[in-house]
Amino acid sequence: xxxxxxxxxxxxxxxxxxxxxxxxxxxxxxxxxxxxxxxxxxxxxxxxxxxxxxxxxxxxxxxxxxxxxxxxxxxxxxxxxxxxxxxxxxxxxxxxxxxxxxxxxxxxxxxxxxxxxxxxxxxxxxxxxxxxxxxxxxxxxxxxxxxxxxxxxxxxxxxxxxxxxxxxxxxxxxxxxxxxxxxxxxxxxxxxxxxxx
Amino acid sequence: xxxxxxxxxxxxxxxxxxxxxxxxxxxxxxxxxxxxxxxxxxxxxxxxxxxxxxxxxxxxxxxxxxxxxxxxxxxxxxxxxxxxxxxxxxxxxxxxxxxxxxxxxxxxxxxxxxxxxxxxxxxxxxxxxxxxxxxxxxxxxxxxxxxxxxxxxxxxxxxxxxxxxxxxxxxxxxxxxxxxxxxxxxxxxxxxxxxxx
DNA sequence: AATTTTATATACGGTTCGTATGTGAAATGT
DNA sequence: ACATTTCACATACGAACCGTATATAAAATT
Lengths: 197, 197
Prior knowledge:
The structure is a homodimer of 197-residue chains. Chain A has 197 residues and is mainly α. Chain A is built from nine helices and no strands. Chain A has helices at 5-27, 34-40, 45-52, 55-80, 84-98, 102-116, 127-141, 150-170, 174-190. The mean pLDDT of chain A is 94. Chains A and B meet through helix 6, helix 8 and helix 9 of A and helix 6, helix 8 and helix 9 of B. Chain A binds a DNA duplex (30 and 30 nucleotides) through residues 2-5, 8-9, 12, 33-35, 43-51, 54-55.
């Protein structure tokens, strides 16, 4: 059976990213051994360094994948809401819930920023942030939100949401804490609304 | 000259923490070599492992120190404000500005959570958070803020503030971005206020 | 069919961490 | 005051890991 080179290469990339998601989430970035990780994928470090440059590069690829998945999900949930304002609240709640996933938490929220630096400068450009920002921009244009800097508002909102998730996950009883966090988030977000007359 | 043991030991701890603040801030936690770091302090790794257990232990000590300094500063600034509500806003702005300091940013915001886990479970108990929470509790008791969970509100507020700082520091022109972030923060915080009648 | 490319495997060197052991000075007891 | 014990720190050692340099075999190209 003749296998095209680009096919197997793509498959190997997928295998490596999948193995990395698992290992990074379970052990954390620094404790993840590249020998073990590549062996789990049925390969060696050779494949890794050829495809991703170095350990950091692999993390960047993993972060990009998860971030994109999160952004897609958040946008879907936001779009399903009645209006843009409800959408913004739904997106925030969605981020909080998604960040309870250990993969998201360990890889995107903890190791990602520490190893790759500030999310706004990631190669993936942080799709999550983009989604929130464009929602905010629409709401400002509609006169529903105060005319704040959209980037600033989006950063603070997602910062609040993601930080809430860290707190929830570390707490003893996540299920009882989640609603408190969502309630506080909704209150905060309401501060962006224009004053009622 | 007879030097008491406990004296020199305390001095050595101070030296090590000082060297670690410098090196961790400049190179980041994982790139910091404990051989170099201890040599800078005029000691060897022996002193380090005896005093702090391991590399993580040293980071924890450094984080504790910086976090405490930040909490003291924020509380002073908050107390100087006219009332508790103005104090809360001033504290938030103070966190944002303090987080522009590379030491704070690299050590407390990036490496700290990645290596030590969620800040609410740090040995230092995260003094910054305590300050904000007690301010929030007072404001709720006064009927100025909505009766939300104080811990949740404090977490989200500080999350927003610290995340804003990461954004600012990574931006091209921090000085022009800072006021936008502070403005957005004040708007968000206003969402915690009880509805005006 | 011969030649070139290249995706991955293998081999190696350098660095780093944590522990195990050694040592000399302060602390303690008689 | 001297002998003994404690312990804070230094030194020595082993294991793990990363990134690169080299080798190889299979696909691509001519």
